Amino acid sequence: MKLKKIAVVILANVFTAQAMANGFYGQLNMGAAFPYFSNTQQRVTLTQSLDNEYSIKTPSATSMVGAGLGYHWDFVSCHLGLGPSIYELTSKATGINTPFVNGGSGFPTLHYSAKGYITAIMFEPKLILTQYAWQPYVLLGAGIAWDHFKAYTETQTDSSSSARPTKTPFASHTLSAVSYESGIGIQRAVTMGAYAPVVTLDYRYMNFGNTSLGNANADHSSLSFGRLTANVLMLGIVWVF
Questions:
Q1: 34, 54, 145, 152 — which has fewest CB within 10 A?
Q2: Are residues 102 and 50 in contact, defined by beta-carbon separation less than 8 angstroms?
Q3: Phi, psi angles (nearest 5°) of residue 7
Q4: 208 and 145 Cβ atoms separated by less than 8 Å
Q5: Tens-digit pLDDT profile for residues 70-86
Q6: What is the pTM of this model?
Q7: Residue ranges with strand state E in 100-172
C-alpha cells in the first residue's frame, strides 16, 4: 500500500508540474549559413553537337533569419516544444561558363552569377533537458522550401578576349521541394527586468532541396545547381507567453 501511495504522489506531482507550465512560445533566430550545392558542374546543350559546360562553385557564407511560434509541454526533467518556423536565406550561384566544350579547346570563357532567395517553412519538434542551468537540446524539422534563382549575368574572364555575354540568359525559376533539418544546441534563461527570455545557441544541418535556373530559350536546357544544403550556426531568443 505504501508503494502505491508513493507512486500516486509521484505521478500527481509530475502531472501537476506539467499542467502548470504548459503554454505558447515565440522565437526569433539569426545566424551564419555555410551553403553547398550538390552539383559541381553541368553541361547544357546548345545544338545537337555543341554543349556549354558550367562549373558551379561553393557559395560564400551568408546570413539566415528565422521566426516561429509553438506550444510547449513541461515535464519534471524535460521540455517538449512543437510548432512551425519560417526561415529566409539569400545565396549566390557563381562559376565559369566554358562555351562549346565538346567542339575543341581554346574557346574563351565567361564568369557567370545568379542570385538565390530561399524561403523554408519547417514544423519543428524540440526536446530540452531542463534539469540544468545550461539546458542542452536536440531539434528536428521537416517542411517545404521555395528556392528562387534569378538575375543570371555573364562577364568576360579576360577583357581582351572575343567572348561576349549571352543575349539569351537563363530565366528566373522557382522550385518547391521537401526540406528538412536536424540540430543540437544549448539554452539558458536570462532575467531582463520583468521579463525572462531564453537565449539559445545551436548548430543545424539544413537541406532545402533542388535548385535551378529556367531555360534560356526553347533550344537550351536549364542550369541545375543540384541540392542546396547548409551548415548553420544560429543565435535565438525565446519568449514564453
A1: 34
A2: yes
A3: -60, -40
A4: yes
A5: 999 998 899 999 999 99
A6: 0.85
A7: 110-129, 135-156
